Structures are given as structure tokens and as C-alpha cells.
Amino acid sequence: MNLIAISLALAAAAGPPFSSVRDTLPPRYVESSIGLGSPQWDGGRTMLRLADLNLDGHPDIVTVGDHGSPFVNTDMHGITVWFGDGSGQWQPFQSGNFGYGGVAVGDVNNDGLPDVGWGVHHDYGSGGFGDRVMGVALGDGTGMNWTPWDQGLGVNGQTWGMFGTEFADLNVDGRLDIASVSFGCCDGFHAYLNNGDGTWTRSFGFLGGNSTMDVAAGDVNNDGYADFAVAHQNGTIYLGDGQGGFTSGDENLPPGGNVGRRGVALGDVNGDAFDDLALVNSAGGVEVYLQAPGSSQWVLWSEGLPASGEWEATKLADMNSDGWTDVVAFGSGRLAVWLFDGDRTWTGAATFTVPNPGDYAAMVVGDATHNGRPDIAIVSDQGSLFNSRNKLQFFRETTEPRALRIRVTGPPRYRTIREGAVLFIDWTCAVPGNVPARVKLELSEAGRFGPWVTIGENLPNSGRYQTRVDVTQYNAEAYLRATVTTASGSAVDVAGPFSILP
Q: What pLDDT is stored for residue 9 in this prediction?
């Protein structure tokens, strides 16, 4: 074993980033798609998000649709939201006259309400709402009403269409910025800074090259600045400089070919705070690459994963709530989950199929049913050869919670956090009986035992909270404390340590 591999193994040996008792049962899924049959889809790629748009504590499914949006052989159009009830039932609502692309959710104007950004091929809207290939709209907390907030987006030579879209604070000013990758060829990859007044300024970008339309935000080198993994011919890993600029971090990754590395995802696999990379290789197999502290080289860490096949997309998430990040892959009608053992081996734990041909259009994972484990939503092409359409399906993880529990799942332990930056705090919460629950989040700058400063309280149990990092001191002993409360009791998780830097 080389020195890089040894350092990775030592990082994994430090244990998973949860201090509480961990689950060991494998994940199991059952379809819960009531209400997802409308509006009708068409075909081609799309993108999904799970986010609580109406602030009721239940994550909703969000998209801007596939080729059928807006009104192309379907009744789909604009921002489409399926409001969840926490049990796997859904109610649709649509706004706008644009679509076929990627979507992001976050609070861009810091008013505490979820907003939506997108990159699309069908820019058929008007009045600033979807009439360009990139856009942002402010929400009012209902998930139904949107106000355009997108001056300057998508006007730097992008004429064909954009797709995969992410929000992240690129210049550490406490405001979410936006990045999007091209719809195939040839509009490149672009990042725009949020000026805080509804206008945006491009800080990085290029035109040309092919894309397979995926993008993921994270922190690959754990410097506290946002990075991206992009499925583009010109490169995959883009390392942020904290000012909105980027440099390549591909290093020794295998060649991406003429369409780029496919099915990319980011997540901290081995608990060292450095985001790792999952992708689909040129043979249709699934691979994971880890980056060791102190090295810019990537190490293949894929024992137990399929070296070839018909896989099309990957996600990285803790699927069995044991503290280790696992791999989810989908392709040609089949979904599979491989669990990470904390050392270097992946073990197949769950699989299910959808009707043929099952070609991938979109996938998202997240706990929408409050059992403490991620569920899975998939859009795939289904039907006969000449009469197939995309279909959205939601698969609920079926483990019944044995006790009330909350776990902070992001940021990962040891992560570098920049003072003044946007911080997403993510958690999963197992709630027996799926009763109403509220969440309180606190920060300690001085160690595991406080003193504690409240970040947010009486929050909906939506699994994510956006805040700005404001501290009085910088150190490597910051901790987060999350408390969930129901009518019958409460549970606490303390996560960290984290390093807070200027």
C-alpha cells in the first residue's frame, strides 16, 4: 500500500462522524408515488431536488422538467413542485413557461425563504421569468409564487442551453452564488456571483465542449471554499479560490473522453472532511476516488463496486445511517446501493428495478419521510420502444424508527468553515410515528461542551437549514448541536469538531 493509501486508511480508521449509536440494518425500499402521476413527462434528461419549499417540515420534490416542459406534448411547465406530506404522498403545483433543465434551491436574498435557480434549454418565458437559459426567482415561502431575480445571468454567449445547476457561496460573502453546466454541446460551464440586489456578475466560465449535464458542489480540498464536480469534456474537478475563480483539480483522474466523466457526485466517504468523487467509468461501471490530506492525487477506492455495466448516474449518501457514506447508482432500469465498511470495501445491500427501458433521466436522495434514512426519487424512461415516456417514482426507505433520534450529516467532521460564508447544516431525524417535530441548532466556538449560541430554533424538521457563519474567535474546536423535540420528548446530537477560519 502506498503512502497516500495508508493516509486514507488511517483517516477511515478514525471512525465515522457520528457520536451516537449507529444503525446496522441494510436499507429496504417500497414505492410511494401517490400524486406523482401528474403532470405528464415527455423524455430526455432532467434534474430533481428534495427541499422544503412551503416550510411545513416535509421535503418536497422540485424540477423544471424534461423535454416536455413547457407544454411540449405534455402539460408540464416552469417550476414544478410536488408537495410532500412526510408519508410518501404528493400534490403537484406549477408556475412559469420554461423548462427542460436543472434546478437548485436555496435562499439567495437571505430573507429566510427558499428560492429557486435553474439552467434550461427551453427559455420560452417572458418578463424575466424563464426568458433566458439561466435564471433565479425569489420564493414567498409557499412554493407557489415566484419573483424573477436574475439580471445578468446567462448572457455570456450561452445560446444553446444550460442544464445542471448548483447554488454555493463562491466568494465567502454570505450570499449564495450560482453555477451551471451546458445542455450537451456547446455552452460550457459558468459561475455567477450574487450582487445582493437581483443582479449577477460572471466570475468564471467558458464556452464549447460536450457535457453530460451533471454538476455537484462540495469542498474537495477542505480549504473552506466551494468546489465543483462537473460532467464536462473540458474537466471534472474545479477548485474554488474563494473569490469566484476556479482551477483544475483533475490531476491523475482517468481520461474523460469526448463527453467528459459521467454521473459525477461528491461526498466525504472516509470521514476526513475532504469530499471524494463518484462517477461512471467508460465501461459503465461505478468508481469512487478519494483524495488524501496533503495530496492532490486521486486514489481509486472501489473494491466491491462493479467495474463495468450499464450504470448512468451516481449519488453519495449515508443510506443506512451508520455514519459512513455509501454509493447509489442507477442505469438501464436498475438501482443499487453499496454500503461502505469504513475501511476500503463496498458491499451490495439493496437493489430494485423499474420498467423497461428504464433509461436514466434524474435521481435524488434524501429523507422525505422522517425515519432517519434517505429515500430515493427517480425519473426514468419507461414504455414500449416507440411509445415511451419519462416517469417519476418515489421509493421510501421502510425502516421503522425505534426511538427519536437526530444526526447532523453536514458539514462533515473536521470540515473547514470560513467566517462570513453561507453554511448549510444538514441532518436526518428518525421520528417514531412520524409525529410533528421541531429542531434547534446551536454552535459552540470553544469545544464540545459549549458555551452554546443559538443559530436557529423552532425550525421545521426539513433536514436542512441555511445560515451565515458569524463568530467571535477562530479555532479548530467548533461544534454544532442539534436538538429535535416532539410532544413526547427530545433527542440531541453533537457534531464536530470543525475548523473556523477567517
A: 46
DSSP string, 25-42: SPP-EEE--BTTT-SPP-
Residue 252, Cβ neighbours under 10 Å: how many?
Answer: 10
Mean pLDDT of 357-375: 98
Long-range contacts of the stretch 136-141 (C-beta < 8 A, 24+) = 136/108, 136/178, 136/200, 137/79, 137/96, 138/108, 138/109, 138/111, 138/113, 139/53, 139/113, 139/114, 139/115, 140/113, 141/54, 141/55, 141/113, 141/114
Q: Which alpha helices (DSSP H) does 282-439 contain, by range?
A: none
Helices (H) and strands (E) in the chain, counts: 1, 36
CA 283/CA 309 separation, integer angstroms = 6
Instruction: Give SS3 for 236.
Output: strand
Helix (H, G, I), strand (E, B) or coil at 166: strand
Q: What are phi and psi of 23, to 5 degrees?
A: -75, 155
Q: Is 255 exposed, middle or buried (0-12, 13-18, 19+ CB in 10 A)?
A: exposed
> Cβ distance 444 to 454 under 8 Å?
no
Rounded to a whole number, what is the largest CA-CA distance in the chain? 64
Q: C-alpha distances in angstroms, 76 versus 38, 93, 212?
A: 8, 10, 23
* pLDDT tens figures, 108-131: 999 999 999 999 999 999 999 999
Encode pLDDT of 46-94 as tens digits. Answer: 999 999 999 999 999 999 999 999 999 999 999 999 999 999 999 999 9
C-alpha cell at 319: 443510506
- How far from chain centre, in Å, is Cα 78? 21
Beta-strand relationship, 489-501 and 416-418: parallel
Closest to 181 (Cα-Cα) out of 33, 349, 47, 62: 47
Q: Dump pLDDT digits (tens) for 469-488.
A: 988 878 889 999 999 999 99
| C-alpha Rg value of the chain to the nearest Å | 21
CB 493 within 8 A of CB 482: yes
Residue 11 has pLDDT above 60, yes or no: no
Which residues have a Cβ under 8 Å from the Cβ of 404 and sit 6 or more positions away?
A: 430, 431, 432, 437, 484, 486, 488, 489, 490, 491
Q: What span, in angstroms and rounded, lies between the C-alpha atoms of 500 and 502? A: 7
CB-CB contact of 342 with 368 (8 Å)? no
pLDDT of 15 over the 80 cut: no
